[in-house]
Amino acid sequence: MAAKNTSSAARKARIEEMRRAERSRERRNRILVIGASVVIVAGLVVGGTVLIRSQADDKNDSSSTASDAKGKGKFTTDADGVKTWSTKLTQNHVTKSVTYPMTPPVGGDHNPVWQNCNGDVYDKAIKNENAVHSLEHGAVWVTYNDKASEADVKALAAKVKKTPYTLMSPVEDQKDPIMLSAWGHQRTVTSATDPNVDKFFQKFVQGQQTPEPGAACTNGIS
Question: Hey, which bits of 62-165 come out as E strands?
């Protein structure tokens, strides 16, 4: 009988030990689960914060690229027929597309890389954001649409090619057949022989309106 009691006590002791071990494992598992949950929640919080900041940055970038379009600026026409933008134009470098309030644009936020403007003539449309950077460097941008005569286009191209700090390209959606643009200034000319072409070049190629006089017109994008 004593042996049987001893065996029963030993079995109870083993069972109790097993229960203690199980309870210990459960406590460890709970701690691990709680710890993992804390890590996951922290990761979600950090990730959410990064996402919100990223979305905010995107929103700020988008709003900055459209800042000129939302402004209250407008063209005023000077006595010599040159139109001048009435408010200060922003000069932020952005990598997204910009919605400009005028066509072609005469300034505003622009791409960090300028369009080559050392007498460069482009027979296809170029990006406004690069051309605006060229205007910031003091270039004059000659633009035309399909209503301009072939003779005028050729004559203007010849003039641009021999004039540093100028560039030329087609802009199909511009209002008039031939237009000249500098930073903050613009005018329409009637033809390549219009005397206002030379006047505009003389006044605005590296003119007083230039935000960054002497900046390069080479080693940009072509």
Answer: 75-77, 83-85, 118-121, 140-144
